[in-house]
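Quick one, tokens below. Sequence please?
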């Protein structure tokens, strides 16, 4: 039996039919007629010297040889498609596709992106706001901004500035609740998106950091950080604001951080891309722009007393 590979079109027809277990659905996927698809599979079976499908009434099923071939054919076409997409992206020097969480996209990227566009008019940005962990090749993503602990094996990763939380509120609310003690009487908001942090960066921990034993039990809870921040900007209450989500609101005066004490988590935002891709001009330009933008508001972090959450006494 020869090891010579059969035609790629025949293997592609087999892969589609094996995934759908239907010649008609496979033909529709490949935009060919069922007769043309059946011809390709028949030629593949002749090349192999054995049937790959049992043709039953109104359905097909794989033979033993078909079951042996199907996983490799599927993986092979997925690998080919990923390589093709990678090659196309290397040649596409104008488009940069970035994925980040919805809150980071809304509160950090979107308000600043005009600056990048003005500095790099030749780069067309595409954003995919999602918390789903995307695949750089399969999802055609160039850059990912992700929050968590890492590590990030197999990719190029740049940790961004350390992440902290501190109570933020409108200037009017700050005037009404001028001290941490008075904050126990304030309407408090809860950002549940950071409940996964360990140790927790929550209200009881922050109060312990400033020497107060207090566990708030009531107040609106938000699953998205940007929604919690928007509620604080509207004057609905005080939120433990995450640096990336509130830094621009503080810089612009819509929110204030009057108590000067923040909790630092080891979780950080990271800039991620495929290893080696960081050298591509459009990716390097985006990374350098993000780092430069972060530095513009570093004075706000520098003005805070930042306490590692691990150093806060346990309850």
């Amino acid at each position: 039996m020869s090891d010579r590979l059969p035609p790629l079109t025949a293997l592609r027809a087999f892969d589609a039919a094996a995934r759908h277990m239907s010649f008609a659905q496979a033909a529709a996927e490949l935009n060919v007629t069922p007769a043309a698809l059946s011809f390709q599979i028949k030629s593949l079976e002749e090349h192999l010297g054995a049937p790959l499908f049992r043709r039953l009434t109104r359905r097909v099923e794989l033979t033993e040889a078909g079951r042996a071939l199907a996983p490799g054919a599927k993986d092979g076409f997925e690998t080919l498609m990923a390589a093709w997409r990678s090659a196309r992206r290397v040649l596409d020097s104008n488009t940069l596709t970035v994925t980040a969480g919805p809150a980071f996209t809304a509160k950090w990227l979107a308000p600043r992106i005009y600056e990048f566009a003005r500095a790099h008019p030749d780069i067309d940005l595409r954003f995919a706001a999602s918390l789903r962990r995307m695949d750089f090749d399969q999802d055609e993503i160039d850059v990912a901004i992700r929050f968590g602990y890492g590590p990030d094996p197999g990719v190029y990763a740049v940790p961004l500035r350390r992440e902290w939380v501190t109570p933020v509120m409108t200037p009017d609310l700050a005037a009404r609740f001028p001290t941490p003690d008075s904050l126990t009487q304030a309407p408090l908001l809860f950002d549940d998106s950071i409940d996964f942090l360990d140790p927790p960066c929550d209200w009881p921990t922050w109060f312990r950091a400033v020497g107060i034993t207090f566990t708030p039990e009531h107040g609106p809870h938000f699953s998205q950080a940007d929604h919690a921040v928007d509620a604080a900007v509207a004057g609905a209450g005080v939120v433990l604001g995450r640096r990336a989500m509130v830094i621009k609101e503080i810089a612009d005066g819509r929110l204030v951080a009057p108590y000067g004490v923040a909790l630092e988590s080891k979780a950080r935002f990271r800039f991620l891309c495929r290893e080696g891709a960081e050298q591509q001009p459009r990716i390097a330009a985006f990374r350098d722009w993000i780092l430069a933008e972060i530095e513009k508001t570093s004075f706000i972090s520098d003005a805070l007393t930042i306490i590692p959450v691990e150093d806060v006494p346990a309850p």
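Residues 64-91 form the longest helix (28 residues). The two ends are 73 Å apart (CA to CA).
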